TrEMBL record:
Transmembrane segments: none annotated. The keyword Nucleus does not apply. The keyword Chaperone does not apply. Keywords: ATP-binding, CBS domain, Nucleotide-binding, Transport. It comes from the Bacteria. Residues 9-245 form the ABC transporter domain. Belongs to the ABC transporter superfamily. This is ABC transporter ATP-binding protein. Residues 319-375 form the CBS domain. SMART domains: AAA. GO terms for molecular function: ATP binding. Residues 375-396 are annotated as: Disordered. InterPro entries: AAA+_ATPase, ABC_transporter-like_ATP-bd, ABC_transporter-like_CS, CBS_dom, CBS_dom_sf, P-loop_NTPase.
């Protein structure tokens, strides 16, 4: 979809001290690239929302400069600056006495779009967020589910095609299943639109799932680390970050680590036309008690184990099919989930053209996870002290 692409956001030495002396944000420097999706995370009260609201000047910084695209928003009329920044909040903030249509049309009308252009845009935005315009445009907010209200909130924020989107716990108020769906949908919307998105969440899994980079704050608005999810999880910069992302960060890394061809194992392969006796001989020479059946075009057909390789006939007569496969580029988490779900010792991996590439086993998933540790990553999980600690935790 054509539209305004994202612009850079720069915070330079930004601080906020509230009137009662609370230091919410201290000397914050943060540079967000155009089109980047950045999550602000940290414990309650660490200044995430304050930071977000200083960008659209709902809160005035006490020091520093905030530049959005070419505009120093700290020196611009905030009402004008806000037109370039869609804003989505947890409770959505839809106008209760206006229809969905009128809610979405708010900013386009404000900036003087004519009726026809505004009406087209409302339809386009409802379709973008997956709500049928004929059904929903005329409804009032109380006639929608929480998830639908949230989607209308996103549609409204995007309606005037701003380059920047600011979101404060955008999916916080919906149930976990709707939340998963909304997150996936938002990712695909963002992939199409390429806006610059700053969003606040206290949910590290949401940040890992959605963000290109994660900014981790500690109380007092100090930036502890600003890096991509794999680095935050695999190489936490400080003890604070390690604690915040949790002792199960190793598991979380599964979700951000893609399957690569180098990670795969290569058990023996046979073709469907081969006699079973030949397949048996192939398996007997290999450490694995099975062979993968691949046809002449490199497509996966199934597998045979030693037990199938008896009697006359060909591999095609006795081979078994797979319940599941994964592709190179899918996450290790997906692979492990399939292995566990199907109680399988191994899982075939295809390329984007459905050609067989190799297999993953629980061991190779683990090896891949270790290989993908970001540079400079200490592996606290593997140190004697950490092992000791875990043992104490277990016995405590
Ligand atoms: N208007 C205000 N006056 C005084 N202190 C404030 C004000 N607004 C926020 N604070 C304080 O500033 C600090 C940062 O608040 P902020 O809302 O930015 O945190 P947060 O990280 O978004 O927290 P949460 O996750 O709980 O929403 C907190 O200590 C909060 O109590």
């Amino acid at each position: 979809m054509d539209g305004t692409r994202g612009v850079a956001i720069r915070l330079e030495g930004v601080s906020k001290t509230y009137a009662d002396g609370t230091q919410a944000v201290q000397e914050l420097d943060l540079a967000v690239e155009p089109g980047e999706l950045v999550a602000l995370v940290g414990p309650s009260g660490c200044g995430k929302s304050t930071t977000l609201r200083m960008v659209n000047r709902l809160i005035e910084p006490t020091a520093g400069r905030i530049v959005v695209g070419d505009t120093d928003v700290t020196r611009t009329d905030p009402v004008v600056a806000r037109r370039d920044m869609g804003y989505v909040i947890q409770q959505v903030g839809l106008f209760p006495h206006q229809t969905v249509r009128d809610n979405i049309a708010t900013v386009p009308r404000l900036v003087g779009w004519n009726k026809a252009r505004t009406a087209d845009r409302v339809t386009e935005m409802l379709e973008l967020v997956g709500l049928d315009p004929d059904t929903y445009a005329g409804r009032y907010p109380h006639e929608l589910s929480g998830g639908q209200r949230q989607r209308v909130g996103v549609a409204r924020a995007l309606a005037a095609d701003p380059p920047v989107l600011l979101m404060d716990e955008p999916f916080g108020a919906v149930d976990p299943i709707a939340r998963d769906r909304l997150q996936a949908q938002f990712r695909s919307i963002q992939a199409q639109l390429g806006k610059t998105v700053l969003f606040v969440t206290h949910d590290i899994d949401e940040a890992v799932r959605l963000a290109d980079r994660i900014a981790v704050f500690s109380v007092g608005g100090r930036l502890e680390q600003f890096a991509d999810p794999a680095t935050v999880l695999g190489a936490p910069a400080t003890a604070f970050v390690a604690d915040f992302v949790g002792s199960d960060r190793g598991l979380r890394r599964l979700a951000v680590t893609p399957i690569e061809p180098d990670d795969l194992e290569h058990p023996p392969t046979v073709s469907p036309q081969q006699p079973l006796a030949q397949a048996r001989a192939v398996i007997d020479r290999a450490p694995e008690p099975y062979a993968v059946v691949v046809d002449d075009e490199g497509r996966l057909r199934g597998w045979v184990g030693v037990r199938e390789c008896v009697g006359d006939g060909t591999v095609a007569d006795r081979m078994r099919r797979f319940d599941e496969t994964v592709e190179v580029g899918d996450t290790l988490r997906r692979a492990l989930a399939e292995i566990v779900q199907h109680d399988a010792g191994w899982l075939p991996v295809l390329d984007g053209d459905e050609r067989y590439q190799g297999v993953l086993t629980p061991t190779s998933v683990y090896t891949a996870l270790r290989r993908h540790l970001p540079e400079g990553a200490a592996t606290p999980e593997a140190t004697p002290e950490a092992t000791q600690e875990t043992a104490e935790d277990v016995t405590a």
